[in-house]
Specification:
By secondary structure, the chain is mostly beta strands. Helices cover about 10% and strands about 35% of the residues. It has one domain: glutathione-dependent formaldehyde- activating enzyme (gfa). The strands form two sheets. It has an eight-stranded mixed sheet. A three-stranded antiparallel sheet has the order 1-2-5, with no helix packed on it. It is globular and about 40 Å long.
């Protein structure tokens, strides 16, 4: 298996492997994503939870998404690394955090959400799909990335 298809938290207490080919990634520039990544944006890949083989037991905390729906945020309780989000607990469809992959250097986002909140100085490729906020059906948008 390629090292691009394995990942986990910073301390190694939670590890995962992905049995599928990675779908395209997207970047979100909203305030919550900036805060959880401690950076200018966060990159995610939409997957089904069944695509992961997980060792270790992530913790979860619940927040409210921009849509008003509940969002479950999975992280390592030892080091605090955010691993993935889901609209369900237990998770079904997830958004895996790209930075948790062991080999993520060649992953480039094909779409951007919340460009209206983009950090000054960040330049986006004009060929990418960009939304000032997010599409009405963000799940359908994520599932159609790169098509």
């Amino acid at each position: 298996m390629s090292d691009k298809l394995v990942g986990g938290c910073q301390c190694g207490a939670v590890r995962y492997s992905i049995g599928d080919v990675l779908p395209p990634a997207y970047a979100c520039h909203c305030g919550e994503c900036k805060k959880q990544s401690a950076s200018a944006f966060s990159m995610s890949i939409p997957l089904t939870y069944d695509a992961l083989t997980v060792t270790g037991l992530p913790k979860v905390f619940e927040t409210t998404a921009h849509s008003g729906r509940r969002k479950y945020n999975y992280f390592c309780e030892d080091c605090g690394t955010r691993l993935w989000h889901s609209g369900n607990n237990p998770p079904t469809a997830i958004t895996l955090k790209v930075g948790t992959l062991d080999g993520s250097a060649d992953i480039e986002p094909v779409g951007h959400l919340w460009v209206s909140k983009k950090q000054t100085g960040i330049t986006l490729d004009p060929k990418t799909d960009q939304h000032q906020t997010q599409p009405d059906d963000v799940i359908a948008w994520r599932n159609n990335l790169g098509q």
